Amino acid sequence: MRVERLLQISVALLAALGSLLLAIGQGGHAALPLMATMAAFCSVYVTDFRGWITLNRNLANFAALIAVLFSFFDFWDADDAKLVAIAKLLIYLQIVLLFQPKTIRVYWHLAVLSLLQVVVAAALNMGVSFGLMLIPYSLTALTTLCLFFVYRETLRVDPELRAAHDAVENRPLFSFLAGKTPDRSETASDPTAAVTLVGQLPANLATVFSSGKMFAQVLKMSFFTLCATVVLFYSFPRFDEGGALGQSLGGGLGTQTGFKDQISLNDMGQILQSDQFVMRVRLTEVNSGKIKDTEYEPYFRGTSLSTYFPNSKTWIVGNLREYRVSEIKPPPPGQDYVRQTIATNQGMRFDRTNDGVLLFSMYPAYASNRTSPDIVDNQTLGVLSMSSESRSNERQPEEYELIVPWHPFGTKSNLRPCRHPLTDHEFRSYLYRDLTQVPLDKDFANTLFPGLRKLATELANGLPAEENGAPTHVAVAERMERYFVNDGNYTYSLHVLPHLKNTRLDPIEDFVVNHKTGHCEFFASALAIMLRTQNIPARVVVGYKGGEYNTFGKYYAVKQKHAHAWVECYLPSDQLPNGVKSDDYPNGAWLRLDPTPASRLSPNRQSTGTIFDTFLDWFDYVELAWRDYVVDMNHDRQSKDIYKPLTDNLVKPFEGWISREQWMKFFRNSLESMGIYLSDEWFSGIASIFTMLILLVLVVVFELCRTILRHAWPHLRKLFAKWAPAHQHRAGFYFKLEKLLAKAGWQRDRSDTPREFIDRVIADCQERKVGSEMVSPMTELLQWYYQIRFGGRTLAPQQQQAIGEHLLTIEQQTTAIRLAARGK
């Protein structure tokens, strides 16, 4: 196949791969990149092969100007929109170039645009699919560069093909209007002069760039380039301790629904539900480390919200400064525990509390032997934080470990012991000041939630009374929870505002009474306020529920779409559920209630065990490894995962060889074994004598080894010559010739050239009538030396073999001359 055809196909494939990388980066807005991919393959046939549509330079420049103006208006939007606008502009320009007749200029422009597309795609998305696509892109790029080099060099050495190439720029606007444009090869005087991989190239280039050899070389270059890239990427030190590739390229600090310390119901028309990775959670047994299997969706707690402001329709945490924090402590005995290891996405920035960076965990949480001492626990609010006293801009840790109670089933799974460092008076103040107050409208007093109050009263009054004449708090809470989940015809939806019936009402009241459609924040808010109307302390808890359980890696991949909100109500020790011992909860307990109708299945039930599910789990595991060890590879992770293991495995085993203390200990032990005991003084006569003896022995050993090597070197050199005879054809044979002649008495002066010296030796042999048989070998050796040294020539195999024969002849002649001289 002609090299130009291969180059056209390769450039089109390069453009298509660059567009696909942009499609991956833009996610749901990938229609234009996919169209560019189709245009790349279409242009090969209609423009390069058939020549039906070929835009001339003037029309192409005009179309490019229109594309620039068309994309200019997109630059006025947000930062992400600016990147998308750049991506669109690159695609427009690429399409214009693809339908032009291909010249060296067009090839260069297409290659540069494709590279810019990769850069923009990296800024938009650094997922594992992007990394996998880089491998075929790199291979195609190297192939394109090699073909481009062959094509350009061929044009340079062939004037007819160069003239045909220059004439391409003058084609008509649309070639089908003026008849088919002749092929590039037909414009030359000789139709057989098409540019092929061997074609018009010089012999050395034609040999290197034959089809099979060229692509083999490309594969080799790709392999070694990939290996060198990996080595440099991981070995080159990162100086920014908090930096990571994903952050430097603008990778995601997106909204964190589950980590927000407030909920704004009025402004939340649609909750952000993205596939952005938040953290990886692995549950294992404390002692054995065996993976802990669970059939329920675990709740990963973030923070609790206590105060609702009707004016702004917002839940907030409250005044955190009123509540004391404590160091996280080891777990108390007598319960079953599980170890949870949480690895966070360093491309996100978690929210902060007054005590530091907000952490996420099943709760209550306790310390293991690998838990950071910087983690503090606000037991009153149930909030974990990473203390930030040392650095004000501290990020969440890459990984942290906690111990949590294990109650996957039964009543205890929803109960949490009430722990707090407050006095009874302070805790009761917290309960009745923050958790039982129903928000009031500033103008209409108690009429803010009339429908909600009425519903809560009806549900509570419909329960059977206990001994004290009122239903228990547990019965009321569970009845209200069942009402939202099963009895009230409520539906779960992320789209809220279009369903509002009366915008003058509070959104919680409107949700309960009218539209009955909402997301988890509406359900949790409504249940918390309904419980408060019955004097039951309640608060809203935000965090994440469940995750995508990966059967391959045995972990939960928690993403933004798993953000969730639920309710906790306080139960005094005399209000605990039946079957629960009050001695186990002396300070009462927090009961978890989830009023949101099920919006997703349990993670373990999502996987059906098919090949496709296994592939998805494997791909998710690879994506996680890509994110951990490529995108988020910062200074700390590099030191921990690369430098430290190398140091431990390669340097530490040899530390004893360079340690002064180790050597001193070795010498002391050796001397003591011989009955010599050294004092601790800095100078010792016995040690000095011993040191001098050691040095004397080393000198004797060194001289002995040098003498043996000097006498054995001639024999070793002959052995090396037999093992490597292929090196005899190098220019070094001439210097061997000079050494042989020097033994016979002919020394080369510094002012003599090799030719002058050999001519002088030949003249002396003819004058003395000796060594006539070595005249011809010396002449040929001199000629071959000049051809190699100054002509860059490689000798033929017959000549390489003749070198050894000539040197043997000269050695025999010089030996005979030397013996004859001694005989005289």
TrEMBL record:
InterPro entries, per the entry: Bact_TGase-like, Papain-like_cys_pep_sf, TgpA-like_C, TgpA_N, Transglutaminase-like
Spans traversing the lipid bilayer: 7-24, 30-47, 59-76, 82-99, 106-124, 130-151, 218-236, 682-709
Domain Transglutaminase-like residue range list: 512-597
One Pfam family it belongs to: DUF4129
Annotated keywords: Membrane, Transmembrane, Transmembrane helix
Origin: domain of life: Bacteria
SUPFAM superfamilies, alphabetized: Cysteine proteinases
Name of protein: Transglutaminase-like domain-containing protein
UniProt organism field: Blastopirellula marina
